Amino acid sequence: MAAPATSPLGAAGPEHAPDHLRVITFNTAAGNPRIKTAQRAFLELPFYREVIEGRSEAPILALQEVGSQQARALKHAAANGRFRLVHIQRPGQGNALLIPQRFQVLSRRSRYLIAGQLRGIIGALWRAARGRGRPDHRQLAELRMFNEARLRDERCGRVFTVLNTHLSAEADLRVVQAREFFGRAHAARRHGPVIVTGDLNTRTVEHPDLLQARADARVRALFAPLKDMGAAAVDPRRPKIDYVLADGFAPVSARLYTGDALQLPGLPTAEVISDHYAEEDVLRFA
Fold first, then answer.
1. Strands 249-257 and 278-285: what pairing?
2. Domains in the chain, please, with CATH?
3. How far apart are CA 71 and CA 39, in angstroms?
4. pLDDT per residue over 44-101, tens digit each?
């Protein structure tokens, strides 16, 4: 089996440094009919268990395409008080942040990217009317959203903001949604360090489709001064579209959960559990 792609970028693990923290972003594929993992089964994965059981080094877990069954199971698990759940849903799926008990939640919000959605639909339909491409009508109908939480790390006292989203795969929608979402992220930067997580549907390498390639470049241009904390964690089997970006932090290590690093009963590898790899990054406050 393939080993998890791992890139040590600095010091030892977070258990040895009070200013280190773990962040995992993971798309759990509720929207892909080819993925047969039961949504409740995701709660048995090891990094979910760390959060649910209140372990001291549990990661901040940013999830996309969270199905309704998984959402209900997470809400039930959050009732034990060992973590806080920040969740938003549209029909069929949603996004969620799982915040371990190490972090005090100072504020939180979850919103739909309505303005970006409307502008993106208008742009896509206008492009189609001019004969410059056919929009993905399914994507046009999918309302996107984000989670945001302002946290205090009770281990070192630092305050920061974490945001989570899942942008559209349709080029026009992705660009305007990204502008709206990164506007929120850059506004949060005025108040301290920021972590941006999620499935941005934006490649780091050239897309073979010119329209998609241009959209990718326009979204990437919105990142700065946020930096990719997992730039070294790549796997050639799947193009990178999932990110942990940050400002006010430095990378310590990065890994992808590939091959038998993730297993569930009847699902022996990460490749069949989801169509995305979970990315884990260890960060330290800069």
1. antiparallel
2. 6-285 (3.60.10.10)
3. 8
4. 999 999 999 999 999 999 999 999 999 999 999 999 999 999 999 999 899 999 999 9
